[in-house]
Structures are given as C-alpha cells and as structure tokens.
Amino acid sequence: MKSVVAPVKNVAATQIAFETLLQRSMGVPGIGLIHGPTGTGKTTATTYLYNQVNGVYVSARAHDTTISLTSRIVEELGAPPMYRISKCVDYIIEQMSMFERPLFIDEADYLMNDTRMLETVRDIYDGTEIPIILIGMDQIARRISTRKQFYNRISEWVEFRPADLEDVVTMADYLLDDGIKVDEELLDNLRMSSSGELRRITIGLSKIESLALANDLEIVTLDDWGDQPFHGLRG
Ligand SMILES: Nc1ncnc2c1ncn2[C@@H]1O[C@H](COP(=O)(O)OP(=O)(O)O)[C@@H](O)[C@H]1O
Ligand SMILES: [Mg+2]
C-alpha cells in the first residue's frame, strides 16, 4: 500500500471551504467547522491541508484546560513555555497575525464543555481574524449552535460523509501498489461492509492487496475474495 492522501470528496470539500475562508469578504467571519463520524478521514484531510498552508495544528485532549491547550499551541509555534494564559494568548495572536498562520484544532469536542476554552479560542480569532478550523465529531455541530457568540463566527461548515463507491474507487487507485486492480463489485462490497468508513476501507484494501500479491492476481474480483470478512471476525 502507498502512504498517500487520496483525493476523496471530503478532502476536496475541506480544501474548498478553506479557500473560501481565506478569500472571504470583509465582515464575513473566518471560523470553519469540520465534523463527521470517526474514521471518515477528518484528521487525514486537515493534516494534509495544514501542511500546505503553514498552519498550526493541535489536537485537544480530554483533560485539557485553557492553559494546557494554549501552552501546546505555543509549543507548536516553537516557543519556550510561558505559564500564563494571557502570555500564551498574546504570543499566539502575534504569531498567527505576523505569519498569517491559520489554526487547526482537532478533537474540538473537548472544548465544548468548557466556556473559558471556547472564549479563549474566540479571543484568538478576534485578535487575528486569521482562519481557525475546528474539527470534531457528530455532536459538535449541535453543541456549538448553543454557543451563540462562537456560532456566529463560523462561516464554513463541512460535514464529512461516509465514502461512496466513487470514493472507494479513488482510494483503491491511490493506495494500492501499481499494477493491482480491484473489480468494482468487490469495492462496493467493501464500501457496504465498512459503512463507508475510510479507516476500515484502508484495512480492507490492504487485505485485498495481500491476496493479489500472494496469488499473483492483476485484478481481484468478488469471486477471488469469496465471503471472508474485510475487517475483524466473520459476523
Ligand atoms: N483521504 C485519505 N486517503 C488515504 N487514506 C485515508 C484518507 N482518509 C482517511 N484515511 C485512512 O483512514 C484512517 C482514519 O482516518 P482519520 O483521518 O483518522 O479519520 P477521523 O479523523 O475522521 O477519525 C487514516 O489513518 C488513514 O489510514
Ligand atoms: Mg481524527
């Protein structure tokens, strides 16, 4: 398997939303929200993006507080520890503004229970007006809509959806070793049995690739695969 990011629809939607944030008109707020179920490729898509745009990326954690989160952003920016929230926030605002570095906060669900953390992210946005992208799971969109001050600053929403057949074909084209093809019928089976989750599709594709290599197959069909599971135990 190749270790590349396949340009599936969710990846394209993320890029477009980010471009829209960058090019927004005066007065349009610049916070973006990416949300969707686990395994749909949110972290992969945003990691790919922030590397291209010199972004700053942090992943929130269950026990984060305002100081631990802002300290990690400061660390990501390459500065020594600062110990005070106000110092951290000032530094983050200065760096993001000076170098036009957008901020990506993954696992942002962990911010939702903590008003102070949300307000701090809002302060960072208001102090820079540089795009901030929050990445979270299913419930984040609903939960954030009750935080009006924050909600009103979001202008781009991307909902990550399960892969469709075209996405699975794209994944196969990009990830499988050269010379290995998979029949669409088998790919559609993989899509259904993985509920369109890219994480499980990746595991299934690697198993299909092993089968192709072991049996010297150029194209793997549903018949070649049989009824073995793609992932985990037989149901
Ligand atoms: N666009 C993609 N191209 C290739 N592999 C991908 C892609 N998106 C996801 N994957 C695979 O699926 C796994 C899970 O994706 P991840 O980005 O962690 O999902 P999420 O953050 O939504 O839970 C990744 O580790 C990677 O192996
Ligand atoms: Mg993730």
From TrEMBL:
Residues 29-143 form the ORC1/DEAH AAA+ ATPase domain. This is AAA family ATPase. PANTHER family: GENERAL SECRETION PATHWAY PROTEIN A-RELATED (PTHR35894), MU-LIKE PROPHAGE FLUMU DNA TRANSPOSITION PROTEIN B (PTHR35894:SF5). Signal peptide: none annotated. It comes from the Bacteria.
